[in-house]
Please model this.
Amino acid sequence: MHSTLLAEPVATATSRPARQPVAWAWAGFAAGLLGVGAIAFSTALNAVYDESLKADPARILAKLSGQSAYVELFHVCAMGAALTAVVFGLGLRRLLARRLPLGNLAPELAATGMALVAAVQILGTGFDTELFSGLVGYGGDGPAMVPEFAVVANHWIGTVPWMWTGAGLTAAAVAHAALRHGVFGKAVGVSSAGLGGLCLLLSVSPLQYMAGPAAVLWLLVTAPALVRAARRA
Model:
């Protein structure tokens, strides 16, 4: 009886492949959407660009006082984009590291690019607390801030957070992985090369803040494709 029991096969659970995590790729899509929001709300803070108020800090401050809600909305979107960009970069790095030859720099380039995006977004919100508090307090016992500071802060929000240069590096890493190593489909490689190249080209020109629209468009187009690629990994 003892030998019979030993001879019986032991039942085991059928093994199934582990489901590949894709939340990081959706984080990239969220970063793109939040980036669009940050750009839109920074554009809405337009007092400093109003030609009728040119060279008049006091009147610029007065107009900005009616736009304080845009400061808060911009801040939330820009910080959200910063945090989700980091998650996207790290997830993309993991995927590329698994599918590219050992020693290839593309995984680190992808993560570093998104880290740069996050850093710029965080710095781009650096004046928000002072600006928002000053605008909310405006009209009580007089201006709650020096008008010239409002001018500088408005210019800062209207330029610095738009510089998504790092996304161009990430897009270049994706294009390399797709076109050179076949990690992703050709369409992903071509779109990454095109939009990423545009982002980098704008970044090295005096119009560097225009890299933002190209970068967020790349994220919105590419992230869903990377979801599919991650599931096939």
The first helix runs from residue 2 to 7. Residues 124 and 160 are 5 Å apart (CA to CA). The radius of gyration is 24 Å.
